Structures are given as structure tokens and as C-alpha cells.
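FORM 7B - TANDEM STRUCTURE REPORT

SECTION 1: FIRST PROTEIN
SEQUENCE AND C-ALPHA CELLS:
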Amino acid sequence: MAAKRKYKCLKAKRKYKYTKRIKKTVFRKKPLCKRRLSMWCLLNRRKQNLQAAIDQQALQAAIQEVKSEMKAELDKWCEMQRSLSQPGIQGISGPQGIQGIPGARGERGIDGSEGPPGIQGLPGLQGIQGEIGPQGIQGEIGPRGIQGEIGPQGPPGPVVIPEVTISPTTNRYFYQPETDLDLTMSVTIPASFFTNDLGAPVADFSALDPNSFNNLYINGILQPGNSYDVNPTSLLFPAQSTIIYAGTPIVLEAVQLTANVTV
């Protein structure tokens, strides 16, 4: 490779015999300068990388050494703190700083406009005071009568304990709706829609009075008292989230209580 390069250089020398020396020198040394420059750059980068690696290792070693020294100093300081049984003397308080200059007071905002006053209501008319009637004449107090003597107490009578018997009378009323009853709205069923135990229609719930109580059964299930209201002429269902389907048996049971006292 060197021989070939040398041959090219000699050939160039013969070819450019009458050319100026500066041109021959530049032509001969140009390939050599580029190669040397690239080699020098490569060596320089390797040297820099090696120096950076050495500096990095030295920095890590220095950091570890500083950490070890700090840890040793910290352990020594902690040991000294533990060895002290009394707290240290409090240092002298420093002088109080000078108070800063207070800022300027801001300007007061613009007051809002006053609203119009409300209309005053009309005062009521004062009633006419009636005339004071004449004072009546006080009557004279009559003489107090003489209290009579208290008679002797009679003998005690015989003690009679009456016998009380409660007799219940049950009346039942039956009804089966022909259509669904939507109880999301209040529903009223007249008493004339019901029949009694004999299957005969009734005009009203005659067994309801202050001495009776009633129970309502829907499909054989006893209903709570707040789910319905009953009076002698109708049965009322307040609004609730349910439906009574057609053909469901509704039974109203009224129990009337009669008290029999036997002396």
C-alpha cells in the first residue's frame, strides 16, 4: 500500500513537473494529513474517555470517603448527645428586629346607591271606646246561718261485686274486584259493593261503632291498620305502591263488643 502510494506520488511528480512547489507539496501531503488527523482525533477521544472514566472513579471514591467521614462524625455526635444527661444552656435571645413601615391605607370604596324605601302599610282604624257603665250598689251581707249537728254514721252496707261479661259479635263483609285496583292513587270502594256471610248485599257497615274493632284481609293476609281507612259507608285505600288484581278476595271483619253487667 505504501509502495503504491509512493508510485502515485512519483507519477504525479513527473506529470506535474513544471507546476509550482506549493502545489506538489499540497498534492503529496494531503492524503497523509487526513489520515494523521483522524488518528489523532481517535487517540484524543480515547484519551478523553479514559480520563473521564478515571475522573468518575476518583469522584465516586471521594464521595464514598466523604460519606464515611460524615457517618463517623454523625455517630460521634449522637454518642455525645446520649452521654449528656442535662440539656444545654439556652443561648441569649437576639435583639428584636425593627418593625417595618406600615403600608399606606387603601382608599375606601364607593358606597352603593341607597335603595328606595318600601311602601308603608296603612294603619288600621281604631275602634270606638264604649261608655263605662255605672257601678252597681253592693248588697249587704246576710247573717251566717247556724250549722246543724252532724248525725251519727250509719252501718256499712254489704259489698256487691258485679259480674261483667263481654260478648263479641262478628260481622264479615266480602268483595272481589272485577278489574285491577291501582293503589298508586287513592281508591274508595262503597260499602254497597260488599256482601255479608249469607251472600246478601249490604247497604253499609253497620257493625262499626265506638265499641268495635275491625280487621282487613286481602287474599287471606291481614293488612296493617295504616294501609286502609274504613267508615260506615265505604272502604278507603290511601295512595301506596301496590296493585290489587281482579278477583282477589277482600274481607272486612268487624267485631262488636257488648258488656253485660250482672249484680
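SECTION 2: SECOND PROTEIN
SEQUENCE AND C-ALPHA CELLS:
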Amino acid sequence: MRTIFQQAKGKGAAVMDAGLFLKDRQLITARVYGDEEPIPLHRHNYIEMMYVIHGNVVHRIDGEELSMHEGDLLMMNQYVEHEVELRKPSDLVLFLVVRPEFFDIPFQMLQEPSEIRNFMVNFLRKNNPSPQYLLFQKRGQTDIRNLMDNLILTTYRDDGNDSIISQYTMGLIFLHILGHSGNLIQNSSQNHKDVIVKETLKYIDTQYKNASLSQVAEEFHQSLSGLSKIIKQGTGCTFQELLMRKRFQKATKYLVETDLQVEEVAVSVGYENVSYFYRQFKKRYGMTPRQYRVVHSQGFGNRKNETFY
């Protein structure tokens, strides 16, 4: 791998040429990467796909870390500049080097508009010279593994009609991915941040009683500090500020709309320490929970859809 990058030297990021990997008329080939030095900053004049066979791998795209775990699949267009680093010697990754015309058949198999079809339109027409990627995160899905195994087998065998088989197999992989489109992150590192912020807010909205930053960090393979930064940049608030806002929003509704005791309200929104709940409530609203209930319960019928902060 290091020799190949020496061949691709130039100003700035090394540019990897398809001819370093693909024979004449060959549309796709595979290379296994493991137990090696980090791959330095580079881009390519082909489509690169990366599939994590075992372990973890980290991409650095536009200065941001993009973590991948076993079963994750990443597709990058010709304009993405990135670095690659494995976490452990046992980590194993498959690189697919693909010419754009390989995707003619998969493109025809995707009849409906989708993130993947739009992605292919951009690099097939070569009318959008901006870095774009698609990342499919496995998250418990197993139905793609067998198709990837078949694709790897036919790619390495490269015999007769195997190229056509590989193209149809890739189309089937894309169709399966679209069946789990919620696990698909697209376009750019900034878009990836937007997805994380959106999912974090959704998580807080539904799991406010037991929500934790570490749970979100584990879900998106982010460090606690990195995730905190993304949330702060995207919302202007810390995770704890967002969580507290949601908890007290629910607490005020319980106080006005139910007959729950204040202690029960505190526990219902995630505060086992009732004294802490009292202090924070008074700090936020300038009155105790009981006073809030008395003041706001009057005329509740005209106010029950109001949001309290």
C-alpha cells in the first residue's frame, strides 16, 4: 500500500489512479487492508467503496472523524479527500475500486428516487465536482452480509460473466440498503453532523427519563467530547441543557394536567433526587412546583396545548 502512495505523489493529497489497480476494461477489483500503517490523505479518480469485515476503522474527511464498525459500508465519489486508520492489528477492511460505468446496471435497478440513485446521478454525469459520500451503518442488520460475500467472491474470481453478476449483486445490495434507509448517512461530514443532532433531539424527546450522552455516543461511534461539540454547534446548547429543558417541559405538563404528587412528577421525568428537582425547578420558574401547579392549573382547559419552559 505504501508503494502505491509513493507512485501517486503530488502536491497536496495524493491522487490514486484507477490504473494502479484495474486492468484494461476491468470495472471493479477488491483489495484487503489490515495490520498496516495508516493510509495518508488522498483522493481517487474512481469510486471507492469500503466494507468493514472485522473491527473498526476511522476515516478523516474534511478534518472530521467518521467511524465505521463491522458490517458498515462506505461509498465515496472521486472528489473525497480522506485518511484511513485501523484501530487494532486484527481489524480488516475491504476496499472496492470501481469505475463509474460499473454502476450502469445498479442504476437501472433503482427505479425510484433515492439517496443512492441521486448519488450515482452526480458521479455518472460528472456534473457535481464536490466531495460526497454515503455511509450505511449496519446497526444490527444482517441481510446485506451474504450479498457482500457474494460480491467479494465474484470480484476476486473475475471470470467470464462475473462482472455482470457483480453489477446485479451491487444493485441488490443497494435495494437492501434502501430498505433500512434510516441507517444511511449521506453527502458530507456536515450532513453527518446534522443527522447526529436530529437523532439526539429525537432520542431526548422520547427517552428523557433515562437519556444519557454516553448512549448516543455509543450509537454513533463518537467520543463524548466530539459528540458534545457537535450537539453544541448544532443546537447552541449542551446535551444536559437540552435534556433538562425537556424534563422540565414534561414536569410542568404533569403538574398542570395530572394529580401526581410532586415527588412522583420528579421521578417520572428522571430525577430520583427530589431535592435537586425542587431547586432546579425554582431556579428555572421562580416558584416551587406546588406554586406552579396552583398558578397554572386555573384555566387549564384553554391552556393544555401550551409548552412551558
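SECTION 3: OBSERVATIONS ON SECOND PROTEIN
Confidence is low (pLDDT under 50) at residues 302-309.
The first strand starts at residue 14 and ends at 16.

SECTION 4: SIGNATURE
Preparer initials: ____
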